[in-house]
């Protein structure tokens, strides 16, 4: 047993003793009687190649840090498995007006140090997030929040500068975690401590090595821990991660096993390999500085030829799923807009598109891609795309690669007609797949795509508070993007973990944003 597990066991034992002492004088029919064996603690072991960089939710938000933060802290709202809309966690929230969002906190919420969790902590947490504005953090997402007021200890009111239907989804992110205002500095990050009111409390932390979590028994919310504690250990390589899970030294392995090792574990047996849809998507964006890409007939013809299923199989061995919209399945308002618009790959239909626009074939297109940013399958992917388009007889493809810093500069400068791109959202809402491509300040604004119809729909869906009407607007916007084809979505990634045969509820632990909720795991 490692030193960290000993500490975790001790922390769980102390927590149990505290509960027993607090209940002193009250008979407990469930307590062990003299001569009975003390129930064995359910302590789980997880391994990953990722390193936790920040325990503080106001800091950076890499996947490993999100996993720890999501389990240590409580948010006002949360999203549960198979339920795409937010539900209460620390509070029940509603719009009182288009620019007033009121959250009523549950009673008797506390932090592990015994401090009460009140609306003052909520206000402090958001004010601190905005004040720190950590580079690489999520503070910019809350630009529509003008202020947070606290009319009483159990009520927090978000006052908005303009209607923002995204706010309930933003409040489920780790950036919206509630921290103890008596324990956190207002003007600096807390480096090696964490005090939240989530399903777990921090029992130990060694940066770059291990995190020990123990069950927080006073958590009040929908994610109460079904185990007594978890240790998360960082290992140096995929091979080490493989050995940990294959030999039973860890209960669950995540983030770091490539397709080859995952296939090896699938065929070997003795473990569960569990997949769920991830929020990561891959697409190709047209650069509107190019005269060729500016022509909608060319863009639509490319979209008509692409065979996503063949590309997913050839380049990734079906470890990814074909994607027919910029919004992947699982998000409110998602529709397979490209499937609706283009049906099946068809070079005859694509040829008619080009012929009707008086475009000579083959159309010469320069495709940019990068070997470093998008993983080991990037080269096979772009080669398959080239093969498909040239096999149609309609296109002549020139591939150009660059390492990531130079690639970013080249795409912005218009060096390619079309370029490989990826996207993973910051918050669990369809808007975060639409704004990057449509808004003038979006992540892909430099490709020069502008559409009055798309911009109008984006503004409407952001201000629409009726969920069904908003989903309809989101669906319409995906339809506009499919018809105008400024980007062509190709595939959606998977969140994949490997677990021991006896570990239960594994799939419910997988969040589409690639981190894990640990509270439902148990033997």
Structure overview:
It is found in: Cell envelope. InterPro entries: Peptide/Ni-bd, SBP_5, SBP_5_dom. Residues 87-442 form the Solute-binding protein family domain. Its main location: other. Keywords: Signal, Transport. The protein is of the alpha+beta class and 523 residues long. Helix content is 31%, strand content 21%. The protein has 15 helices and 17 strands. It has helices at 3-22, 63-72, 119-132, 167-170, 238-246, 259-268, 296-305, 308-316, 337-342, 347-356, 378-391, 404-413, 431-438, 452-463, 467-484, and strands at residues 43-48, 77-78, 87-88, 91-97, 100-105, 145-152, 155-160, 200-206, 210-215, 229-234, 252-254, 271-286, 321-322, 363-369, 395-401, 418-423, 487-500. Strands 1, 8, 9, 10, 11, 12, 13, 14, 15, 16 and 17 form an eleven-stranded mixed β-sheet that branches. The longest helix has 20 residues, at 3-22. The protein is globular. It starts with a helix and ends in a 23-residue tail after the last strand.
